[in-house]
Amino acid sequence: MSQDRTAAKSLFFEGVSHMESGDFPLAEACFREAVQTAPDFAEAYANIGFLLDKRGVLDEAEACFRRSIALNPKYFEVYLNLGALLLTRKRLEEAEVTYNKAMALNPHSPAVWSNLGMVYACAKREAQAEKCYRTAMALDEKYDKARFNLSYLLLRQGRFEEGWSVFESRDWYVSLTRYFACPRWRGESLLGKSILIGYEAGHGDMIQFCRYAAVLKARGASSVTLICHPALKTLFATLDAVDTLIAFDEEVPRSGWDFWTPPMSIPYYCNTRVDSVPADIPYLRARPDLAAKWELAMPARGVRVGLVWKGNPKFENDADRSIASLDLLKPLGAVPGVSLISLQKGAGEDEAIRPPEGMSITHVGSGIKSFEDTAAIVSNLDLVICVDTAVAHLAGALGKTCWVLLPEYITDWRWLSGRTDSLWYPRVMRLFRQSETGEWRTVISAVAAALEQFAQERASR
Length: 461
Fold this sequence. Notes:
α4 packs antiparallel against α5, α7 packs parallel to α9 and α9 runs antiparallel to α10. This protein is α/β, with parallel strands linked by helices and 461 residues long. The strands form 2 sheets. A 6-stranded parallel sheet has the order 7-6-5-8-9-10. Strands 3-2-1-4 form a 4-stranded parallel sheet, covered by helices on one side.
């Protein structure tokens, strides 16, 4: 082995050590020095690509992955990383080719089968996606990523029986499993028993699934405790079936109940199906005094329409679910007899404060301190028009008429496929779907036409 190669390997292993300790900048520096010393070092290029991908430098990451593969065409793991990057960039055909090359190297890898399934799912080739996921599960029955990916596909199709079952493979509530000392509820009789519902996922998920507190009470639970995000605590105080509320930033006992459960596992153990979704809405309410306070900030005339066009930019699919600019919603502002109210908090606030020329909008989002405020505002509206965010679930839970604008790409499972209504919020929710990825103008045109009819009907009353 040459002296240069020995030095490069030493730098490589030093970089690996820094990666394992979490010092990514120093790790990257080691790998870069390694490829300068030994330009044919495929593994070092692969690790540089991995680190660049993690921090979003995608063009350079892709170049490093491809350089690594050129140097070592049998380097299986790099195909997986490159395929994932291409999928992130929606280059589905290239991702499919990349994963098929990985498949040729290792056809018994559950990871490559599951990842290829994700490509097919994103391309709406759902039968092929399902076959890939099931192949991955057959290769390794403990490969939970494939089970989780399959759950989204099945739930989106309304195949709830198996969908809820494989959805149990999700891992984001593992910290609760380690924390609570009392038994986890798995469908046992609750007659005379106390149960704690933990929290998981985001605000919208908790708003959607807190309805199951009433289901557990109906099954005989003597008391129900609910843990929630701090911003939801005062709002959830209006839940009739909850006896005790605890925000997760407060002290939470490890035991004291007969059972505990993650909220999104309750549908599985309660056998929720498409025709038995518990949808007794409204199940949340706005505080009357707070609603009266926010009423003073509302336009005095016109049909009041609340708008939310952006979600949390940290959400994995936010670039697809959010509308890039308020300017695209100008057709809604042109509808006669309508007053637009912005509920944007954080992302989009700057646009609401300085709306596009010719567009009038009342911005109240900056004054929102918690979801209790948002509920009070929504209670004063005639209609909410929003993208797929927590506000959609809040409006539905309050029984407020709500129109949700959905992306074509990776539409969330809970809206199912092809429907214009919602099982979770019947009678009050209408879904407007993109027909092609990124094309909001057609959707907004349809919403504007529907809004004109809505305003005319309100005026005729």
